[in-house]
Amino acid sequence: MKSKPDTSFWDQRRGKIFSSKGGWKVGEAVYCHGYSMMDDLVGQVTYMQLYMLNATGTLPAKSLADWVEAAYICMSYPDSRIWCNQIGALSGSCGTTTVAATCAGTLAMDSYVYGAKTLVDGVGFIQRTLKEYEAGKAVVDIVNSSGRFRQGKPQIIGYSRPIANGDERIEALERTRTQLGFNIGKHLELAFQIEKHLLENFNERINLNGYISAFLSDQDLEAENIYRIFSTFVASGVTACFVDTKDKVPGSFLPQRCDDIEYQGTAPREVPDKS
Question: Backbone phi, then psi, for 202, in 5-degree steps?
């Protein structure tokens, strides 16, 4: 006779919600990772500090949260040519709600090819590479063994940019880093050494992914937590592009004619005349 499966774990949770993050105790307080939200957080910390607390479980210093906020601004271009912003603009042209447009555009950023998830690989690369460098591996050997080559140039996560050479956002974030009192740590120093080699030999530079990955590695943040922190960093730009098209003629954003579409399906067929 078959023994009954042990369902005690599930039975204890049936009809109940368990949380290790916090919650509202009616008549007492609203708790967030051990803090009283109304007493310890509201008016005491910035929204970005709270955001990072919820993403990582640790309340960061205001200076670090301010740097992350600056990085968020660097990813909020109100340019409808950018893939996620284009979804926001199309949503406005179709008459959706602000929330639907912003969520859809933000979701389009969740990719292993572009967006916040690429930071996981960027962090993995610079942290792994620093260990190799400190063990004696030269920068030239790191570059030669760190990625595949395309048209004679190394393809390394965190370096190069599809459209432009260089990244205007890094200068702004470097200025912010200095203003907030952060020194250049070991990861960022190595990232710049790799850039120097790439610039001299391949005319390629570090990009925003490489810079953020190195800087936040110096702040002892793990890859998954960095990904969580930046999970909505395009939202503002998406909203801007939604607003840009919302009150314009419906369907007027990137309209297409039927012959703009290259149809590759079944060829047209004659409909039999049954008359």
Answer: -135, 0
Question: Domain spanning 118-229 has what CATH number?
Answer: 1.10.230
- Residue 261 makes CB contacts below 8 A (sequence gap 6+) with none
In tens digits, the chain (275 residues) has pLDDT values of 677 888 999 999 999 998 889 999 999 999 999 999 999 999 999 999 999 999 999 999 999 999 999 999 999 999 999 999 999 999 999 999 999 999 999 999 998 888 899 999 999 999 999 999 999 999 999 999 887 888 778 889 999 876 667 789 999 999 999 999 999 999 999 999 999 999 999 999 999 999 999 999 999 999 999 999 999 999 999 999 999 999 999 999 999 998 999 989 888 888 888 76
Write the DSSP string, 148-209. EEETTEEE-TTB--SSSSS-HHHHHHHHHHHHTTPPP-HHHHHHHHHHHHHHHHHS--B-HH
Domain chopping of the chain, boundaries = 20-60, 118-229
